[in-house]
Amino acid sequence: MVAKAPVRLIPLGGLGEVGMNCMVVESGEDRVVIDCGLMFPSGEAALGVEVIAPDLSYLKSLGRPPDAVLLTHAHEDHIGALPYLLREFPDVPVCGTKFTLALVKEKLAEHGISPRLMEVWPRGLGTAGKSLDFEALQVPHSIPDAVGYALRTEAGLIIHTGDFKIDWSPTDGRLLDVRRFAELGEEGVACLLSDSTNAEREGTSISEREVGESIQRIMAGPLARGRVVVSMFGSNIHRIQSVARAALALGRKICLLGRSMTTNVRLARDLSYLRCPPDLFIDPDSADHFAPRELVILATGAQGEPRSALSRLALGEHPTVRLEKGDLVILSSRVIPGNDRSVGNIIDHLVRRGCRVLSSVSGSSELIHTSGHACQGEQRMMLDLVRPRSFLPIHGEYRMLAAHARLAESAGVAARACIVAEDGDAIELRPNEIAAVQRAAVGTGRVYLDARTAADGVGEVALRDRQLLAETGMLVCLLFLDRKTGDVVRGPELLAKGVAGFDETRVAQARRAAFDALEALQPAQRTDHASVEEALRRGVRSAWKRGVEKRPMVLPIVIEM
Ligand SMILES: [Zn+2]
User: Fold this and answer.
1) What are the tens digits of pLDDT across the range 263-312?
2) What is the pTM of this model?
3) How far is the CA of 315 from the centre of ligand 1 (A)?
4) Burial class of residue 490, CB neighbours in 10 A (0-12, 13-18, 19+)
5) Which of 40, 46, 304, 415 is deepest in the core (most CB within 10 A)?
6) pLDDT tens-digit profile of 162-185?
7) 463-to-38, 460, 484, 497 alpha-carbon distances in Å
8) HEC states along 383-434?
9) May I ask the CATH architecture of the domain 473-560?
10) How far apart are the first and last CA of the chain?
11) How many Cα atoms are found within 13 Å in the side-chain-facing hemisphere of 143?
12) CB-count exposure of residue 91 (10 Å: 0-12, 13-18, 19+)
């Protein structure tokens, strides 16, 4: 008898980076994709790139679509790359909980895609392909309706936690389904895939309820003399609920700014994930009819994104809402490393307007944010509940995955069964054995996109050019040749963009050097465009001193007349 193919776990994103989570699970003939997310370039090194998606060529190379996409929750780093997957495989069923699917539907509509949606609910069962049974598992996270999944594969039970934390007093009362995780653990779990985002943080994460209460105290306290702005991710409906409660108690109205804030709140209210009277919300256009003390503004942009609602408020560019002396701004989110400078800039503008700002960047000791991800104490509890035979840390940069693997080892998982893998590796599972890894089994990578709706990536070469252009600028060198004789009719002429030291003397020097380089060519080379272009490039560049100045990028253009 031929040995059966192993069950394979193939991460296409999210192992080695925070973001673009995407995990392929193959069991027998069945194949599912768990999450398909985006990543955002951080800081100033964006080079025009707005979003980064995982390279899905592996899935495309298989010749048939996956049997299902299972979504854990609706954060961008879990659902954002769905358009690129669905453009390739439009008929794949997309499974997720109610709130997740509502957001997915809305986002995909922007791309002109109407997906095949299949709702799942905690402890609900489904089957992908012929026989890959799955079950959704309730987990708390910083967005409503998050789940993990249990998959019944040919190599046994696999559990994928999704993003999770363990919050014993969540604002929506939706606890981790400890009992179900323990039951599955009792049954025997071949492999646990668990969220590693906070694997370097000891202890446990603070409950969302405590943060909500702290923000409510601040809103009722002496700092809140004028308008109160709370800036945060629009998808953190739990925190929005806390702010809404405080607003209601204090007689303030809520004004929503930012597209994702407005969309998330609308969906959450429609589906009853957010409960508050309809007249609590006012239109931004009527904000100036209210006294500062009567307003709470919920705004996106706490990561310092340019053009976001918060950035416009800080710069005084919002058409109807203006901040002034006495207003309070709470930046209720963790600043992603790389974004500190732009957040710092926004805080400077706000403080210049006379606002008081509470933020982790400006060293505030107030409790204004908590993570949606498990810290070591919670990760350890998940390991103790599930007691897996093999362990695969997911969602994190390499050091976070490594820290999580060490934790699993200390929790009793065999050292060689704690696997630190990266995108493109294949983790192979056989019944009753521990996992084996095939390194770099499939091609992976990143697709850089200038806009969310762009169909084509920028490409590594183009990105390198952009980097070079930013660093050195560019010179265009034009040369006109006689078509018949190959003699120079005009030029070389130089045009510069962003080049230092571009003046008359330098132009003359560069032209002379280019001319000399042309003269030095063998007669046969003079009719060869590539040789002529190379001579121009060499000549022009030599006018900038090597090792002293930045030599510009030179683009030679030869025109025959
Ligand atoms: Zn998440």
Assistant:
1) 999 999 999 999 999 999 999 999 999 999 999 999 999 988 888 999 99
2) 0.90
3) 30
4) exposed
5) 304
6) 999 999 999 999 999 999 999 999
7) 18, 5, 38, 18
8) HHHHCCCEEEEECECHHHHHHHHHHHHHCCCCHHHECCCCCCCEEEECCCCC
9) Roll (3.10)
10) 73
11) 26
12) exposed
Cα 73 to middle of ligand 1, angstroms? 7
Which amino acid is located at 170 in the chain? P
- Residue 415 contacts residue 442 (beta carbons within 8 Å): no
Distance from residue 383's CA to the centre of ligand 1 (Å):
20
Q: Is the dihedral of CA 60, 65, 67, 68 positive or negative?
A: positive
Q: How far is the CA of 288 from the centre of ligand 1 (A)?
A: 35
pLDDT in tens, 406-427: 999 999 999 999 999 999 999 9
Give the burial class of 211: count Cβ atoms within 10 A of its Cβ; 0-12 exposed, 13-18 middle, 19 or more buried. Answer: buried
Distance (Å) from CA 78 to ligand 1 centroid: 7
Length of the chain: 561
Phi, psi of 156 (to 5 degrees): 110, -170
Rounded to the nearest whole angstrom, what is the distance from the C-alpha of residue 178 to the centroid of ligand 1? 19
Residue 298 · residue 334 · CB < 8 Å = no
Answer yes or no: are the C-beta atoms of 115 and 105 closer than 8 Å: yes
Residue 395 Rama label (left phi>0; alpha psi -120 to 50; beta): left
Tell which CATH classification among 3.90.400.10, 3.30.565.10, 3.40.50.2300, 3.40.50.10710 matches the domain 208-358. Answer: 3.40.50.10710
Alpha-carbon span 554 to 122, nearest angstrom: 60
- Report the separation in Å between the CA atom of 520 and the middle of ligand 1, taken as the mean of its atom positions: 62
Domain locations along the chain: 8-203+372-449, 208-358, 473-560
> Other C-beta atoms within 10 Å of 345: how many?
15
Helix (H) or strand (E) holding 553: strand 553-560
What is the assigned CATH class of domain 8-203+372-449? alpha beta
Can you spell out the DSSP letters for 173-206? -----HHHHHHHHHH-EEEEEEE-TTTT--S-PP
Shortest CA distance to 490 belongs to which of 500, 481, 499, 502? Answer: 481
3-class SS at 149? strand
Query: 37 alpha carbon to ligand 1 midpoint, in Å?
Result: 10
Low-confidence ranges of the chain (pLDDT < 70): 1-2, 43-45
